[in-house]
Design brief:
36% helix; 8 helices; mainly alpha
């Protein structure tokens, strides 16, 4: 995601860089009541008096980067006896009636699994996967930048899959696909386990129902610093 920061973003991100790690660790909580929200009943019944405010592009980028984005080149697998002295080559940078639930395979052009319908068959998927690993821009291509002092030598030392190996994998994978109607056979092609919800807090709710300290200074100042729409709050 390409984000063009404005001056507000730049100032806020610089403050983010200085946020203490210990404060982040001890201050982390699931704060679930957002601007525009409502709890219709119970001891915490409350209706927000504010309109919902969506996250900006920069805010979304920061949230996604913190939970799973690319923050730099990984150090790969240092050594595996089966491949030595070569560098390990297995890291990567990445509805049918027989199924009890729909099978997600990704979205073309955004994120797609290495299987049909994104490839005509599993042999083509295997070739594309190998190219993704060893071809230009891949994690095991000598021309790809990295974290090592001699990155071309380190990346280029990985043992490249030969045609016999790829043919073996393709045949097994095609059998699984033909048998189960998808690949892998017993789990979704794109295994989605978790999700994240991010929103702007309604601090009035926390001021009414919680003891002081229910949110951090950064929460109190967020709308003013990032959106120019509120006075600083809290201690």
């Amino acid at each position: 995601m390409k984000v063009q920061p404005d001056r507000t973003d730049i100032g806020a991100v610089r403050e983010l860089e200085d946020f203490p790690l210990v404060a982040a660790l001890f201050g982390r909580r699931s704060r679930r009541f957002a601007l525009g929200g409502e709890i219709p009943d119970g001891p915490l019944a409350y209706r927000s008096e504010h309109e919902a405010v969506p996250l900006s592009e920069m805010e979304r980028m920061l949230v996604l980067s913190a939970m799973g984005g690319t923050t730099g080149w990984h150090f790969s697998i240092t050594r595996h006896a089966r491949y030595a002295p070569h560098m390990s080559n297995y890291p990567a940078a990445a509805e049918d009636e027989r199924w009890p639930t729909p099978n997600p395979t990704g979205r073309e052009g955004v994120f797609a699994a290495y299987c049909p319908p994104h490839y005509p068959d599993m042999a083509a998927a295997v070739e594309a996967f190998a190219e993704r690993k060893f071809g230009p821009g891949g994690p095991l291509h000598p021309g790809t930048p990295g974290a090592w002092t001699d990155s071309p030598r380190v990346r280029g030392s990985a043992q490249i899959h030969d045609q016999a190996f790829k043919a073996c994998v393709a045949r097994q994978a095609q059998y699984v696909f033909d048998t189960f109607g998808k690949f892998p056979g017993t789990v979704p092609s794109v295994f989605i386990m978790n999700y994240v919800q991010a929103h702007h807090l309604d601090l009035d709710f926390y001021d009414r129902f919680f003891e002081p300290g229910a949110y951090l200074r950064t929460h109190a100042e967020h709308m003013r610093r990032w959106h120019h729409s509120a006075e600083p709050r809290g201690d």
